[in-house]
Write a structure and sequence with these properties.
heterodimer, A: Rossmann fold, 6-stranded mixed β-sheet, 10 strands, B: mainly alpha, globular
């Protein structure tokens, strides 16, 4: 078992707050599709699982080790949350791809430029974007840039929050293609929020349905 | 060359009513609604400064080291409360950190200036120490208010980037350091800018005061140079200490950005 979360409990809404409690399990290569209507707390679940905010109960495990035993920065690099709104930093596309490699946790590693360029090509981003100011990218280009950056830091679990929302059909297919290849290496899994069922080309799917009024339901693969 | 201060008699002081009437006239003609504040402000100016005048006369006469320290520390406390109140971006900010940073910058820079540069006799002369520390404090207060406000403003406007850095595995410091840099810069910029134009646009208050008091302008200039540089140093230290102490408050125990400051999608 690669990633497991048990009874993750959190509260949504200030007026008439409702508690949500969810559990899930992922083995190598699996993808858990998180479903539920808007405002059901799907993004909040991802933020809690990646320790960008705290829930009110529950525990998560990476390769059997509790998150209580893993420092938050190491946990976040391994259970990596890719936000719906892509984060762009000052500088070129290349600068943006290199940013995670400037922090201490990866002191010995540098950005694999060839791999980055290859991923750009796979995701239908023209090579000349490499030196372009990242702030000038379109929404679809920016979300692919953020996805490439998330893949390059090589987490064990990717938490993808509507990664294809800004993409057209060819770009969408190319992203899922890259994702399913990424998942074939051992010790990798993904959770995915998507409002459409465009993820059908992925394999080893399971589903988690978050209901707005506190209940939750799991149904099998 | 007249070399002494020209005293202002009570009658002459009363003539300042003319100035108040001008200000009040403008306010009432244009219906600015400032008349009440103006009258209250005028009364407070008279009362507060008169009391301070008496208090300083007394304090200078006693010239007790412990009394001086007590007064300066109290001034630091009042300044820290004022600085914190002035920051619109900062919710429920405890005065303690602002107080600590003002204490550190004021005492460090003030002691250097008073004991090493001016070196009066005795070294803790209240007549030198209190105005010098007061000037440092007033400027450091403005500086830390600006940088504190900027730190929280940056953390809000850069939430996406800060959380992305955390998600890459950055420590809170690594995630926030660009905002910290901007905050310190924001606090120091007005002081650095004032170094450029001092004497060209206006004569600084202290120098004006010394000249009106009969001092030789070239002597007043020397004091003003010391004052400008000590203010710059104090603002730099104050901003650095405060922002360095405060950035952690933006994160929770698990090193995640505090929810209040994060704007959720």
């Amino acid at each position: 078992m690669l990633f497991e979360f048990k009874n993750i409990t959190y509260t949504l809404g200030n007026e008439g707050p409702r508690n949500i409690r969810v559990s899930g399990t992922l083995y190598n290569g699996e993808v858990l599709i998180v479903q539920g209507p808007s405002g059901a707390g799907k993004s909040t679940l991802f933020r809690i699982l990646s320790r960008l905010q705290s829930g009110i109960g529950g525990e998560a495990f990476l390769q059997g080790k509790s998150w209580l035993q893993i420092p938050s920065s190491i946990w976040r690099a391994n259970v990596h949350y890719l936000a719906q709104k892509p984060a762009l930093f000052d500088g070129s596309v290349a600068d943006n791809l290199a940013i995670p490699f400037a922090i201490r946790i990866r002191n010995s590693k540098a950005l694999d430029v060839n791999r980055a360029r290859e991923l750009m090509e796979r995701l239908l981003l023209p090579a000349q974007l490499w030196n372009q100011d990242a702030r000038t990218l379109s929404g679809g280009e920016a979300s692919r840039l953020a996805f490439i950056r998330a893949v390059l830091i090589n987490p064990m679990v990717l938490l993808l929050d509507e990664p294809t929302a800004a993409l057209d059909e060819p770009a969408r297919q190319s992203m899922y293609q890259v994702l399913s290849e990424w998942l074939t290496t051992t010790d990798r899994a993904a959770l995915l929020i998507s409002h459409t069922d465009d993820y059908r080309q992925l394999e080893h799917l399971s589903f988690l349905n978050i209901k707005p009024l506190g209940g939750h339901e799991r149904y099998g693969k | 060359m007249e070399n002494s201060i020209i005293p202002i008699s009570n009658f002459q002081l009363a003539l300042t009513v003319i100035l108040v009437l001008i200000t009040g006239g403008i306010s009432s003609v244009l219906k600015l609604g400032l008349l009440k504040s103006l009258i209250w402000g005028t009364i407070r100016t008279f009362v507060q400064l008169t009391l301070v005048g008496y208090a300083l006369t007394y304090i200078f006469a006693i010239n007790n080291l412990w009394l001086i320290i007590a007064i300066i520390t109290l001034m630091c406390y009042i300044a820290s409360r004022t600085a914190v109140k002035r920051t619109s971006n900062v919710p429920d900010y405890p005065t303690l950190l602002a107080f600590l940073s003002l204490l550190a910058s004021t005492y460090l820079v003030g002691s250097i200036v008073v004991t090493l540069i001016i070196s009066p006799d005795p070294w803790y002369s209240a007549r030198i120490a209190i105005p010098i520390f007061g000037m440092i404090l007033g400027n450091a207060m403005n500086g830390i208010a600006l940088s504190l406000d900027r730190l929280y403003g940056e953390a809000r406007s850069r939430t996406t980037e800060i959380e992305a850095m955390l998600a890459f595995g950055a420590t809170p410091w690594e995630a926030i350091r660009d905002s910290v840099r901007e905050a310190v810069r924001a606090g120091m910029t007005p002081t650095i800018n004032s170094l450029m134009v001092v004497g060209l646009v206006s004569l600084p208050g202290m120098m004006t005061g010394q000249i009106l008091g009969g001092a030789d302008p070239s002597e007043a200039v020397r004091y003003q140079i010391v004052v400008m540089l000590m203010i710059a140093a104090a603002v730099a230290i104050g901003c650095l200490v405060l922002v360095g102490l405060s950035y952690k408050k933006l994160f929770n125990n698990d090193g995640a950005l505090q929810p209040f400051y994060g704007v959720r999608p």
